[in-house]
Amino acid sequence: MNTESDKDRFLKEFGDDYGYPKAPKNIDEIRATEFKRLDGTVYLDHAGASLYSELQMEAILKDLTTNVYGNPHSQTDSSLATSNIVGEARQQVLNFCNASPWEYKCIFTSGATAALKLVGETFPWSSQSSFMYTMENHNSVLGIREYALSQGAAAIAVDIEEAAHDSGSTNPASSHKVLQHQMQRRSEARVVDEELIGDAYNLFAFPSECNFSGVRFNLDLVKVIKQDSERILEGSSYCKGCWMVLIDAAKGSATEPPDLSKYKADFVVISFYKLFGYPTGLGALIVRNEAAKLLKKTYFSGGTVAASIADIDFVKQREGAEELFEDGTLSFLSIASIHHGFKILNTLTISAISRHTASLATYVRSMLSSLTYENGDSICTLYGVPKSKLLCKEMGPIVSFNLTRPDGSWFGYREVEKLASLSGIQLRTGCFCNPGACAKYLRLSHGDLLSNIEAGHICWDDNDILHGKPTGAVRVSFGYMSTFEEARKFLNFIERSFVLSLSHSPLRTKYIHLPTEGFERAPSRYYLRSITVYPIKSCAGFKVDSWPLSSTGLLYDREWLLKSMSGEILTQKKIPEMCYISTLIDLNLGILFVESPRCKEKLQISLNSDLFMSARDGMDLHVDRSPERLPWTANSS
C-alpha cells in the first residue's frame, strides 16, 4: 500500500527548489512567525499585491519611532537624515536591478503607473515617432499611447513570437518575428518614407512578465529593438529612427528583476508593494542617463527648480534626473520603509524566491493540466504555456486558467471566485487590467470585444460568460511566503467544487477521469442549508428551501438589472442604497414583487409578459426580455 503523502511526492520532485533551506528561517518558520494573521486563509493574489511581513512592519515602526525624519527640502539635521536615507534607498533600487549609478538614475514616483505616465508625458514624441508595444501589456502601459497619438505619432501593437532561424545564428533579431501588428494614427497627415529621418525618437514597451499569463519575456528583446528593429517589423517605415526601450517590471521584479548590466533598457518601472507588500503608493522609474536628457519636462514644482520668478516667465530647472522629475516633497517615510523590505529579499535571495515560487506554480499547473474527461478533453484550459524558449525562457509564479464542463461549456470565472471565497481562498479573476493578453489567450476578436461591450460588459462586472465565451480567466499567483499547503488546499477546492461535484452526478460520472496521484478523495462535509435567489442584480434577494434550475443556473436569478436615465448599469458599488430594494417571486402566481422603503406600493411584474410598463411613486420601469438576460431597466424619474 502506497502511504506516500502529497507533500512527499511534491518534495521528491521540487525539494531542491521549495523553501529556503540556506536562509536563517525555512518557509514553515517564516509563516509561523511572520504571517500569523494568515491562519486559515489561503492568499493566492500576489500578482495583485504581495503581503508585508509582521516582523517587517515591526522594524519599520521601530525605525520611525526611533529616528526623526524631516522634510528633505529643509536644512535641518532631520532633513539631512532624510536625504541620507533617500540616497541609500536609491542605491538599493539600482543594486536590485544591477544598474550602475554612473549609467542609471532612480526616480521615485507615487507608483508604477505614475512612473509610466511620467515617461509618456515627457517622451520627445513627434509626427515621425512610433510607440510600439506588445499585446501583453498592462493598461497603464497602453495609456502611454494617448500621449503618442496626441502628438501625431504612430502606435503599433505587436504580437512577437519566435521565427524559424539557423540555430547557429548569433543575431538575437533572427530569433523573433512579428506575427501580427496593428498600427494606429490620429493625425490626418501621412508621413512618407523620405520624411522619416534618423533623429526621430521611438519607444518600445514590454513587460518582463505578463501579469495575465505569467509568461516571462526574453530580455534579448532590448537588444533586438535597439539593434535591428527594422527586421522585427520586416522593414516597415515606422521602425526608422532611434529606438528606446521601456520594461514594465512591476510584476516580474518580485521574482526576477531585469539585469541592467546585461540588458541596457532605457526605462524600467518598479512597484514596491508588489515586491514586499509595504509601502503602497510608491514606485520607481529607473532611467538611463542618456535617455533622461531627452525627456521634455513642462511642469515645475517645489523641489524641481533651482530658481523661479513669480510675475515674469522665468524658471531655471535643477540639473539631474531625480531633482528634475520628482515633483513636490517625496514620500520620504515610505522611502525609508523600503530598506526593511529589501532586507527580506536579500536575506532569502531573489534566486531562491524565484525557485520557490516557480516550484509551486509548476506543481499547480501540472496538476490542473492532468484533469481530463474520459474522452481526453481537458477540464482545465491553461493560458500562457510557452511554445518556445526563444521568446520566453520560463514561466513566472502565475497560473491562469478557465474550467469547462463535460459538454464543453465554460464555468464562469466569477462562480469560481465566489466559491473560492467561501472556502477561504483569495484569488483574482477577470482580465487583470491586461486587455491585449486577455483577448489573445481567450481568442476574442475585435468583433467579440465590441459585442461584449455593447452587451454591457465592463471591467470588474459579473458578465463572465457572453456569447458562449469567457470574458476573463481565473488567476492564482504565488509569493515568497506561499506554501505547499496553500497550493494543495487550492487543488482540493478545485477537485471538491468542480470535479467530484460532476462525478457525483449520475449523468456525468462516466465522463470524469481524475489523476491517479495528488488528490485526496474525502467525503464532502458541506451541506446545502438554504438558497438565496437575487432576481435583480445588486438588490436584496429572498431565501427558499428549494428552487428550480434553468440552463443558466437558478431560475430567474440575476434576470433583471437597473439602469439610470443615461443608460448606465447601476450596482451597489455605485449606489449602496440598492441593498434596501427587496424582491420576492411567487412561482404559482408568476409574479415578481419589488418593494422599496421609498415607495408606498409594491411593484408587480408578470414573469410571463414580454413587456411590462408601470409608473409608481416616481419610478419609471421598462421591462424588455432579451437573450442576454437583460430583460428590463428601471429608470428613476
TrEMBL record:
Question: Locate the Molybdenum cofactor sulfurase middle domain: which residues?
Answer: 527-608
Q: Where is the Aminotransferase class V domain?
A: 42-155, 244-489
Q: Name one Pfam family in it.
A: Aminotran_5
Signal peptide boundaries? none
InterPro entries (alphabetical)? Aminotrans_V_dom (IPR000192), MOCOS_middle (IPR005303), PyrdxlP-dep_Trfase (IPR015424), PyrdxlP-dep_Trfase_major (IPR015421)
- What is the name of this protein? Molybdenum cofactor sulfurtransferase
